[in-house]
Fold this sequence. Notes:
Elements: E1 2-3, H1 12-15, H2 20-29, E2 46-47, E3 50-53, E4 56-59, E5 65-74, E6 80-91, E7 94-106, E8 125-131, E9 137-146, H3 155-167, E10 170-171, E11 174-183, E12 187-195, H4 217-220, H5 224-255
Parallel strand pairs: 1-10
Antiparallel strand pairs: 2-5, 3-4, 5-6, 6-7, 7-12, 8-9, 9-11, 11-12
Amino acid sequence: MRLVLLRTALPAVALSAIALPAVEGVARELRADPAPAARELTVGSAVSGSLAIGPFTVPLPPGDWTVYYTETATSNDRTTRTEKVALIALDGDTMTQEIYARADVKRDRKGFQAFPYCRDASYFHEAQRSNLHTRGQDCWHVRAESLVEREDAGPRFQALYAKADKENLFLPAASVGSRFHFADRDALLRVAYSWNPELVLRSRGDDKVWLAADWSKGEVSQDPRRMAVMRIMQRWGADWYERVKAAFETGAADIR
């Protein structure tokens, strides 16, 4: 695996700063057409259009995606079934985007604990309509996530690092994007869509890379360039919120 540590190691598209109007164009391109029928996926599968996870058909941004991690589990009391899927998009040997989705189904209809990460001071944007214990939960936010390799990484990140090592991929030190969370008494859906910030906006200094802390609300507020990028992410997230919410409502209704 190669973390993006030196600007000279990046492909040409990342070596030049992208003007903000061009970033607007990227945001427009990410508006997907209606998702086609979902299908079952395994590690290594290529997918586009939509992702089948649990009872849900989750919309995907345009492009070719590869599944790099899947997990299915049932709780010890047999009341909850959980599915997790992670996807990666590449430009050559560089990660451009990543998606992580989780779906839970409750057979006993007792609902889920309130999601502790609907709100956080570091998020650039957060919107919470409800976050009730065992009942309705509806929130989304724009945030950064660290991808720096660490010993305590969970199975998803271990799978990402293993894929990068095997295929000699460049991974950014952080990703930025939107995460959506919905739940009711019967089901839960959580989906995070992330982008490689190194390919969107050049960090300051040829030997510098973007870290997750660089995209916190406080740091972004001090840099008009990052502020403009995150506002575009927020507008994208507001549009995509409706798509993911519709996917949740449709899938949850099917199991009642």
